[in-house]
Amino acid sequence: MNKTFSTFLAAGLMLATLPGLVNADNAVATVNGKPISQKSYDFYLAQSMQRRGKNQQGGVNREAIINELVNRELLHQAALKEKVENDETVAFQLEQLKIDALIQGLINKLSKESKITDKELKAEYDKRVAGAKLAEYKARHILLKTEEEAKTVIAELDSGAKFEELAKKKSTGPSAKDGGDLGWFTASQMVPPFSQAVAQLKKGSYTKKPVKTQFGYHVIKLEDTRKRQPPKFEDIKPQLRMVLQNQRIQEYITNLRKKAKIDIKK
Predict the structure, then answer these.
(1) What is the pLDDT of residues 170-223, one digit of tens each?
(2) What is the pTM of this model?
(3) Ramachandran assignment for 183, one of left (phi > 0), alpha (psi -120 to 50 degrees), beta (any other)
(4) What is the CA radius of gyration of the chain?
(5) β partners of residue 211
(6) What's the CATH class of domain 133-227?
(7) In 3D, which of 146, 149, 198 has the Cα closest to residue 169?
(8) Nearest by Cα to 218 from 156, 140, 160
(9) Residue 67 and residue 40: Cα distance in Å, rounded?
(10) What is the pLDDT of residue 53?
């Protein structure tokens, strides 16, 4: 089935299973005497924007949305006439949609009854900032194919050779043309052996032993370090709220599982 058409039907099926969404008040259209309410329009629009992405170019085409709803209602009426709801697959899909709607309603109810305070959000923010790795490193490296080649480069550096010149001549990495310059990076942006070696270096020093990764053998020089500024509390409050809400839902589920008799078939 065409993907666009199937998602259109899925949204229509969800609307059809939610009670009280269609009534005679504020009808945006009628189909064979059955009204399509403004509430139905608002719900369908929200679903449509979620599927297509919120940043739609050109805004909302109300007429197009209403025509989609008209087509949906025509299909709905035809499905009822053909008694499609008696089909085993359709009945199962309707039941699953009902379950999803009930679960979402429960989550909304729990969120309203147990609102997350700014104090809780700030505490979560402070905990995350305290545990965050905010260090950034500026380094160069020389990538070589073998450990022996790396040891030879280290010996040359010990004898006074310039790191940048050796990188240009001997490194097999893409940064060779820039003297091995990697710019600024965080530990998470590099493979663990590389990041661990950089973190142990002092500013201006280089690794005295080759650092092995899946890319080869590295000789690394740390040029500078700095501390990143964490995002502002106000800027990430929505994300923190979502994190705490998800945590509470997981705790709620954990408690339900503790009280329930669950038999998982193997």
Answers:
(1) 999 999 999 999 999 999 899 999 999 999 999 999 999 999 999 999 999 999
(2) 0.57
(3) left
(4) 30
(5) 218
(6) alpha beta
(7) 149
(8) 140
(9) 13
(10) 65
Q: Which two tokens stand for residue 249?
A: 């839902």
Q: Residue 251 carries which side chain, given as an amino acid letter?
A: E
The token pair at 223 is 């040029």
User: Phi/psi class of residue 58: alpha, beta or left (left: φ > 0; alpha: ψ in -120 to 50)?
Assistant: left
For residue 77 the two structure tokens come to 């009426």
| Residue in the structure block whose two tokens are 């949305």 | 65
Domain spans of the chain, in order of start: 3-113, 118-129+231-259, 133-227
Q: What is the 3-state secondary structure (H, E, C) of the chain?
A: CCHHHHHHHHHHHHHHHCCCCCCCCCEEEEECCEEEEHHHHHHHHHHHHHHHCCCCCCCCCHHHHHHHHHHHHHHHHHHHHCCHHHCHHHHHHHHHHHHHHHHHHHHHHHHHHCCCCHHHHHHHHHHHHHHCCCEEEEEEEEEECCHHHHHHHHHHHHCCCCHHHHHHHHCCCHHHHHCCEEEEEEHHHCCHHHHHHHHHCCCCCECCCCEEECCEEEEEEEEEEEECCCCCHHHHHHHHHHHHHHHHHHHHHHHHHHHCCCCCCC
| Residue 219 backbone dihedrals phi, psi, to 5 degrees | -115, 125
pLDDT tens-digit series, residues 55-87: 555 577 899 999 999 999 999 999 999 999 999
Structural tokens at position 89: 């697959």
The two three-digit tokens of residue 48, written as one number: 């449509």
Tokens of 166: 């050796």
Which residue's structure tokens are 């280089």?
206
